[in-house]
Design brief:
Blueprint lengths: L1 H15 L8 E4 H14 L4 E6 L3 E4 L1 H19 L2 E8 L2 E7 L7 H6 L21 H11 L3 E6 L5 E8 L2
Parallel strand pairs: 2-4
Antiparallel strand pairs: 1-3, 4-5, 5-7, 6-7
Helix pairs in contact: 1-5, 3-5
């Protein structure tokens, strides 16, 4: 019952990800990322903020927090810790969530953003979620006029980037 409840919550979040009811607001990404990292550290999680450029975006804040939480949760689950950063490139504000995990194959990079795709192949939900976190994050990013990309780092680990139009 708990597994089904968790899966249904994920399905509902996916369905609602593009239809948030909160209003769009100007958000300073550095402050949002710092607040998010502090929340995780209060829970004893290894989440830190690196460089945080002065970037402001117009988004629905609760949805963006949801997307970033999904990415940080994955980084912690598969890479033990998460490092967040904010950069501005060519009018795009980019929030990067980096982990120290094993990275992904090219096939996983293509498929893990689809609903119910899981990187952990067992059916045990204790060792992985329902496969909705990345697809929810992607839907939110796209709903806010941006994108979500995944890329392996040369030295190991994965970078997941939400790029949004900067103001």
């Amino acid at each position: 019952i708990e597994e089904m409840t968790a899966m249904l919550a994920g399905i509902l979040a996916l369905a609602r990800s593009g239809a948030g009811t909160d209003a769009r607001e100007s958000v300073v990404l550095g402050a949002l990322v710092a607040e998010l990292a502090a929340d995780y550290r209060e829970q004893g999680r290894d989440v830190a903020v690196g460089e945080a450029a002065d970037a402001t975006v117009t988004v629905r804040p609760m949805l963006l927090r949801r997307a970033l939480r999904n990415l940080v949760d994955n980084a912690i689950a598969y890479g033990v810790r998460a490092r967040l950063s904010v950069a501005v490139t060519d009018g795009s504000a980019r929030v990067t969530v980096s982990d120290d995990g094993p990275g992904l194959t090219d096939e996983q990079i293509r498929t893990l953003v689809e609903p119910f795709a899981r990187g952990e192949e067992s059916r045990n939900r204790a060792t992985g979620g329902a496969g909705l976190g990345l697809s929810i994050a992607r839907e939110i990013a796209e709903g806010e006029g941006g994108s979500l990309t995944l890329a392996n780092r040369a030295g190991g680990g994965l970078d997941v980037v939400i790029a949004l139009p900067a103001i």
